[in-house]
User: What shape does this take?
Amino acid sequence: MRFLAIGQVRNAAALTLVVTLVCAGLLVSGCGQKGPLYIPETPASEESEDSDS
Assistant: This one.
């Protein structure tokens, strides 16, 4: 029976590791920059209007 207990501990440790890695992957995938990746360039007509004011 001693080997059965060790096997159960290994299974529990493996399950804990898998669950932890899945949860960490979900948390990390939720992080990041939201919205556009770059600041949109303003058209030349808007720049000329702002400089005249």
Q: What stands out?
A: Helices lie at 2-30, 44-52. Residues 1-29 form one domain. The chain has a mean pLDDT of 74. The chain has two helices and no strands.
